[in-house]
Please model this.
Amino acid sequence: MKLTIFIVAAAAALLSVAMAAAPPPGQQTATGTDNLNTTTSTVEGPNITSSDAASFIFLPDGRFPPNFTFGGMLDPNLGSHDALSAGMRYAWPMIRDDCGRFVRRVKYCFVNEDNKTALRHTFKEAIKSWRQELGEPSAESGHNLQFKDVGNPYCYANWQNERNPENWQDGTDVDALAVRIERGTGSAYGTLGYQFALESAPGRHYMVLGDDHVGRAAHEIGHVLGLAHEHQRSDRDQYIEFRCNKLKGFSDAKKRAEQAAEFDVDYKLCNYQDFAIKYGFNIATQYTRGLGYLTTHDGADGFDYKSIMIYLSWESADDVRCRLNAEHCPLAKKGETGISAFVPFNERPSSRDVAFVRQFYRWVPQP
Model:
């Protein structure tokens, strides 16, 4: 469930905004539409009337910008915690499918035959869990999200790791999500949203699953679409208790930091991602408010306990008693009586998770 953040990519996004002399990402322009990064994409747009076009910002060549949502502006009151509203990551690009429809397609592949055999069923079931809540892409369901295996037949001709583009398989789209398993870890991680590249970079989108658990895979799909962890909202302390010292590795990291004569160690380990990483407490980066170097957006609807993007109470717990008593867990619901309650494992997208998809992967009127 870990979420990989690329600092370089974030810096590049900020640089592109600065060069365009535009407002900061996510800030509204004078016309009322969201500021949209104008990175070139491969999106082909439909025929749009002059009245429609007046409501949106387009790329210089007339194509859709990355987070374009036909039929209305981005809703600043969206209830999800995400990175797309802030313009730091993007929805997957809009294309025409084989039926001529305008869809946003998440292209994926498995890194090799062994990984496809191990994960194909799990990944398809995870997609199914989203589809059952969303419905098929259509005007009735209100979304145009589509998934497609584009491996030819796999991501790599000779799999080594994510950063060996010379091994990328000819005929497989270079921006496809590379899916693989990392057995025995029990964790999962991957990239957040869609990342545009000045030069096409094979393997820049990836998902790593520690087992074949469908719920974990569905959680990671949420990240792929642009959702951030619900428990990392800036206002999360109003709704949940985060006990950083209950996480695995806290005590060892604290000892290392104190031996280095650091001060305010407890606070820094639990709130500063770079400090936590420095002392080998990487798990804390999955709990700190916000996403460090990336700007995220808190929806106005408050905390979503049912979101698939929240960790269950005993995730990465250091104390086995956590399974019986939420007081010993890293995360717990704040109870009205002062007694902590467990945060359950949500294996399906919530209504707000679905609303996020319908916002950024909105159905487009067909030509």
